[in-house]
Design goal:
The chain has 336 residues and is mostly helical. 74% of the residues lie in helices and 0% in strands. It has two domains: 167 residues, Ferritin, core subunit, four-helix bundle (Ferritin, Up-down Bundle), CATH 1.20.1260.10; 146 residues, no CATH class.
Length: 336
Amino acid sequence: MASSDAFSSPRLARRGGEKLRFEELTEPQILALAISLEEDDARIYEQYADAVRESYPESAQIFAQMAEEEHRHRRRLLELYQEKFGDRIPLIRRQDVRGFLERRPVWLMEPIDIEKIRRQAEAAEYETRIFYRRAAQKSQDAAIRKLLGDLAAEESVHEAKAEALESSLITHDVQAREAETRRRQLLLQVIQPGLAGLMDGSVSTLAPIFAAALATHDTWSTFLVGLAAALGAGISMAFAEGMSDTGLITGRGSPWFRGTVTGVMTALGGLFHTLPFLIPQFRTALGVAIAVVVVELITIAWIRRRYMDTPFLSAVFQVVVGGFLVFLTGILIGSA
C-alpha cells in the first residue's frame, strides 16, 4: 500500500502561503483533493438550499439534489482511496492549489440573489469537470484514471441534469413568483433602507449647513459643518436601522447589510449639497448648493414614484414641502 507517498512529499508544506501547482500533485493527493472538492460542493449546495428554501422552494429542491449527487461522488472517491492508499487522507483543499476559484459563502451574498447563486453553482460544476478531466489525463493508475474520467463525464451530465431540473421544476408561474420575490427583497433590503437614508441625509442636514453658510459667509467653515453633519447622521442612521430588527420576521435581510446601506446613503445625502462649499466664492457655492438640493429632492421623489408606487406629484409635494421647511429653518436661523 503506497500511503506514505501522500504524506512524505514536502510539497504539502509550503512557506509563506505559496500554493501548490496542479502538475506537482501525486495520485493520492489528487484523490484527496477530489474528496475535499466534493465535500465542499455538497456543503455549499446544502447551504444554498437552506438559504433559498423559504423564498425559492423549487430552487432549493434543485440544490438539495445537487448536494446529494456530490455526496455520492465523494463516497466513490473515498472507497477507491481506501482501496489504493489506506485510511489516512492528506489534508489538501482547493485553496491550497493554484487555479481554483474562490467560493463565496452564502452569508456574504446578502441580500440573497438567486440568479447569482445559480451562476456560481454552474461555475462550480464547470470547474470541477475541468479538474477531473485534467486529473484523469495525469493519472497513471488505470482504476484511478477510470473513476476520474467517469466523474468528469458525470459532472457534464450533472450540469445538464441541473438545467433539466430547473426547466421542469421552475415553470413560468414559478419564475413569475421568484421574480416577484426578488423585487420584494430588493425593495425591503435595499431600496427602502437606502431611500430612508437618502431622505434623512438630504433633508436633516439642510438646516445646519445653510444656517452655518449664512451665519459665517465662510465656505470652508460651512463645508466642515456639512461634513460633520453628514457623517454624524450616517453613523447614527446606520446603527438605528441595523438595530431596528433582525430581519428574520420581516424579511428585511441582514441588519448589518441594511444598516450599512442606510448609513452610506444618509452620508451621501448630506454630502451632495456640502461639496459645493469647497468652492471658495461664497455666492457661487451657495447657488450651486441650492441647485443640488433641488436635484436631490426631485431624485428622491422619482425613487418614491418608481419603487414605492407613490404618485409623482404627491411624492414631490411630500418631499419638497418637508425639505423646504427644513431649508427655511436653516435660512432663518443663519440670518438671525
